[in-house]
Design brief:
Elements lengths: L12 E3 L2 E6 L6 H7 L1 H11 L1 E5 L6 H11 L15 E3 L2 E3 L9 E4 L8 E11 L3 E2 L4 E3 H7 L2 H10 L1 E6 L8 H5 L4 H10 L3 E4 L5 E7 L2 E3 L6 E3 L13 H11 L6 E5 L7 H13 L1 E2 L8 E5 L3 E5 L2 E2 L3 E10 L2 H10 L1
Parallel strand pairs: 2-3
Antiparallel strand pairs: 1-2, 3-17, 4-5, 5-20, 6-18, 7-17, 7-20, 8-19, 9-16, 9-18, 10-12, 10-15, 11-12, 13-14
Helix pairs in contact: 1-3
């Protein structure tokens, strides 16, 4: 494979415990540099699943916006968020609002949606004092590492996400659907394969079954692609889970996951999934000015607890509908 970019661009530092890192000399124009090296950068993401570019030196939102636009032509508007973000316009967002002292466990962004981002873009403006890395894990390797019986059940049944929207925990209706108008929300749910019901107090409950394993649209290789562990009640800190169950009941949790046939996913299964993820996690502490590109199908990502200020900007890009998702929609019809 040949590239028009300098050969030095391909000198990516590969270590087993961290994502591939490309060290560059700070360019005068980060967006111009990104545009000129777009082909080579994207090739590295295709090969490795993720790439951290260090030394780019992005300093503010406008620079990040320009760099992201230089790397992809198809930024997404987020829908069905499970927690709020601050939108900055043109597909640029803050990282998800989540307690600093709680981890965001490994997941694939919007893996429960009909249209999923094929690419995630991250840029660090302020690095935390400690922690806060965006870890990555190869979804092909994770799938191979799972016990055969469990893997086969999820391949056969898929997984079920249940959500209960309220005004206190998680994203609001407007943040998730772009509107809190009932008819608009219902039309969205019908169009995107989401079962819904309104409770007497006016709040919304939804259920959506999704494939747990999908084939990568480029390589065709199967990937463990879901948020089964992250959005399950047993991944929550014990005190948080107890509070939510006391406040809303197990059927009213803001989000929870089940086997595709509706069966409960036990704490042991969630612990196993998170243990497998941890064995395959690669992490590198953020530095201000860093850029990270992540293939959202091939690679799961996480956010570790941190102290101090942390500002990481995010974009979701290149939406696609996995073939397994299209087949599932055909079954519904």
């Amino acid at each position: 494979m040949s590239f028009s970019s300098p050969a030095s661009l391909l000198e990516v530092d590969l270590r087993p415990d961290r994502p591939p890192v490309l060290q560059v000399d700070p360019p005068a124009d980060p967006a111009g540099w990104a545009a000129g090296h777009r082909q080579a950068l994207r090739a590295q993401v295709t090969e490795h699943g993720a790439l951290l570019v260090r030394g780019l030196g992005v300093r503010d939102k406008e620079q990040v916006r320009a760099v992201f636009a230089a790397l992809t032509d198809d930024l997404m508007t987020e829908r069905e968020a499970f927690a709020p973000r601050t939108p900055y316009g043109d597909g640029l967002y803050s990282s998800t609002a989540w307690p600093d002292n709680q981890p965001m466990c490994m997941h694939h962004e919007l893996s429960y949606a009909q249209r999923v981002p094929g690419l995630m873009l991250f840029a660090c403006l302020t690095a935390p004092d400690e922690g806060g890395a965006t870890g990555v894990a190869d979804a092909e390797e994770v799938l191979r590492a799972l016990p055969a019986e469990l893997r086969e059940r999820f391949e056969r049944e898929g997984w079920l996400l249940t959500r209960s929207y309220n005004d206190e925990i998680g994203a609001s209706l407007a943040e998730s659907f772009g509107s809190d108008d009932r008819e608009t929300v219902e039309n969205y749910c019908r169009a995107h394969g989401i079962d819904f019901s309104w409770r007497p107090d006016g709040t919304l409950r939804t259920r959506q079954r999704r494939p747990a394993v999908v084939r990568h649209p480029v390589t065709g290789r199967p990937c463990w692609f879901n948020q089964i562990a992250f959005l399950n009640q047993w991944t929550l800190a014990p005190e948080v889970r107890e509070y939510l169950v006391d406040e809303y009941g197990e059927d009213g949790l803001p989000f929870n996951t089940r086997f595709g046939d509706g069966g409960e996913i036990g704490e042991d299964v969630v612990e196993l999934l998170n243990t497998v993820y941890e064995r395959h996690t690669r992490r590198e502490p953020w530095q201000a000015g860093d850029l990270m590109l992540v293939d959202n199908i091939r690679t799961a990502h996480s956010r570790e607890p941190f102290t101090g200020e942390r500002e990481v900007l995010v974009a979701l890009a290149e939406p696609c509908v996995p073939a397994e998702r299209r087949a599932q929609e055909g079954e519904r019809r």
